[in-house]
Amino acid sequence: MTSSQVVALVISPFVAVFGVFFITSRHHISRVARQLRREQKQYVGPCTQSPTLMLVAGVAIVIAAALIAVGALTGVID
User: Model-level pTM greater than 0.70?
Assistant: First the structure.
């Protein structure tokens, strides 16, 4: 295994865990962002985070992590 394959195999689980965390906590993040925006006029982003868009992003992150791991195991990543 090359060093880039080892790095890909080490990093991909962390990326997958982040994606799952993003999926599971999307409602809480959206609620806190809306509350900050309403009460303190603080902006967490350009617009309030949408749970649906955060779900899509989380799924995309998990799929990317899986593709990275598969690519490292099959030798596509050198």
Answer: yes
